[in-house]
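Hey, I'm writing a tutorial for new members on how sequence and structure tokens pair up, and I'd like a real worked example in the thread rather than a made-up one. If someone can provide the structure for the chain below, I'll link this post from the tutorial.
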Amino acid sequence: MQFAAPQLLMLLQWMDSAFPTGAFAHSGGLETYAQADAVRTARDLAALIAVKLENAAHTDLIVVHSAISAYGEADFVQLAYLDSLCAASKPAKETREASEKIGRRMLASVLNVQPDARLSEYRARIEQGAWSGHHAVVHGLACAALGLDARSALLAFGYGLAANQTAASLKLISIGQTQAQAVLGACGSAIAEVVEAALGRTLDDFGGFALGLDIRAMQHEGLFQRLFIS
């Protein structure tokens, strides 16, 4: 894959932890795993991230890919459908709401630095209450507006998932920055594998099953002490 310098710089800005999407406030259920002593070490963290990436290959990554195609065709009916699929694949309330919040904040932040007519129209429909603005849909649309190919967009999404988990782990388990970065670096091959798998799938293949992830996400709402929103 090849990037023009402006494309690469903009993508790096979007994926930076300083970009205001609010993702830093969500642990994706990791906080529940940590309090249950189910994730205590770097090895545990790596295993959890691997499961999340595999689940994403059957759900969110397919949505990202499909959103890129819908952007090119200006197919807003398809985008509404993708939003509904995202909601249906997230039975845990906190997970579903996190996807919506991160997606909407990403959309607003992207439009602030990279105006785009189709992204603006999508945002208008969200503001009208018609759509939810899930993260995977917004990510795909933003990458399409930037002119990125599908593989690059999916790699960035997968990296963002893994990076969020390693960042949250610093506050939740006994792991240092060096270990966390080692875990993130080792995720590279897994991210590449799930991206290639997702690129070969269509919406007919949509549907993950990760009951443990959903249960831990649901339990998070009832924790006595919480550092994260989800």
